[in-house]
């Protein structure tokens, strides 16, 4: 009750002072009402504080524990921010260092877009060593390409229009069989027709065969200059295709047929097309017994297969399938032979 009296006295005093200042009664009442509302209404900070306290009270943990959790989370966030800032600074420093290194290597005074080239000169000692190594490699390649030599004889009879070709002997032929030897023989024919071919006898297991055989071709004199004589040396194989060791081609237009020609010549490699298209040879036997209705297939051997592994070898095996029309009846497979061609 005394609080109410004090307020009424305060209002009376305020009205008197307002009247003395020339303020109307209504304005004074409005001022008192606004002042009362401003002093009595809570601020936004107080409201937020009350809400935070209410939330803390609702948490089942004690007050000190919740405050500690909040502080720890704030510290963790600060640490993460500091780490991110450090990484960004380190990246910028690295970029600056790289830029400085490039600037140190390149003359920045040169205009952009212009280039300058200089030849790299090897040292004299290194150059001599490399040249010697290249020579050694070339000599090795030449030695590897040696396929032997062949001695032959040519005699042309102008009256009869006949060319007598004698195959005398061969020397230093390469060994193509597993035993390190060959079974060589020579085919003799004329290009471009290849109509008539002659063959020498096969000489078993030798690299220096002596043939001493003569063959006669009928060639009119007006056609001699268009012909090319070919000696093709082969290695005989009983069960598979014969391997060509090499060949010698002699254009008759470059030969003086007025004299008997007898000489040695190096054997050259065979045509590259035959080697590139060749995938290898396989030797097998077939036997069919009608009474028993039995077909026997024996895979004997394969050779000169294509290199499939990195080391220049292969691990071959053979698959066999028996078909009736488009229907497969049976299939078999041989064992694998490791690291062989």
From TrEMBL:
This is Synaptotagmin I. One of its GO terms (molecular function) is SNARE binding. Coiled coil: none annotated. The chain crosses the membrane at residues 63-85. One of its GO terms (biological process) is synaptic vesicle endocytosis. GO terms for cellular component: axon; dense core granule; plasma membrane; synaptic vesicle membrane. InterPro entries: C2_dom, C2_domain_sf, Synaptotagmin. Residues 146-265, 278-341 form the C2 domain. It comes from Terebratalia transversa (Transverse lampshell). It comes from the Eukaryota.
């Amino acid at each position: 009750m005394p609080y109410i009296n004090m307020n009424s006295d305060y209002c009376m005093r305020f009205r008197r002072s307002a009247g003395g200042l020339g303020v109307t009664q209504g304005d004074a009442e409005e001022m008192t009402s606004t002042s009362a509302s401003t002093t009595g209404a809570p601020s936004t900070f107080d409201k937020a504080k009350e809400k935070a306290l209410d939330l803390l009270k609702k948490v089942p943990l004690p007050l000190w524990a919740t405050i500690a959790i909040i502080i720890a989370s704030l510290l963790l966030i600060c640490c993460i921010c500091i780490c991110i800032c450090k990484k960004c600074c380190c990246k910028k420093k690295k970029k600056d260092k790289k830029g400085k290194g490039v600037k140190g290597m390149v003359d920045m005074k040169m205009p952009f877009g212009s280039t300058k080239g200089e030849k790299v000169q090897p040292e004299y000692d290194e150059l001599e060593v490399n040249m010697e190594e290249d020579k050694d490699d070339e000599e090795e390649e030449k030695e590897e390409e040696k396929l032997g030599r062949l001695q032959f004889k040519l005699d042309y009879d102008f009256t009869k229009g006949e060319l007598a070709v004698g195959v005398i002997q061969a020397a230093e032929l390469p060994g193509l069989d597993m035993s390190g030897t060959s079974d060589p023989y020579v085919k003799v024919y004329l290009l471009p027709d290849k109509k008539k071919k002659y063959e020498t006898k096969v000489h078993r297991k030798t690299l220096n065969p002596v043939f001493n055989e003569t063959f006669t071709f009928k060639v009119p004199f007006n056609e001699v200059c268009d012909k090319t004589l070919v000696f093709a040396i082969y290695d005989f194989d009983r069960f598979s295709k014969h391997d060509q060791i090499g060949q010698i081609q002699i254009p008759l237009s470059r030969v003086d047929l007025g004299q008997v020609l007898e000489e040695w010549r190096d054997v050259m490699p065979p045509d590259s097309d035959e080697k590139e298209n060749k995938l290898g040879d396989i030797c097998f036997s077939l036997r069919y017994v009608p009474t028993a209705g039995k077909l026997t297939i024996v895979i004997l051997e394969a050779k000169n297969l294509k290199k499939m592994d990195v080391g220049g070898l292969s691990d071959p095996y053979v698959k066999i399938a028996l078909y009736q029309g488009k229907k497969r009846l049976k299939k078999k497979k041989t064992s694998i032979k490791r690291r062989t061609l």
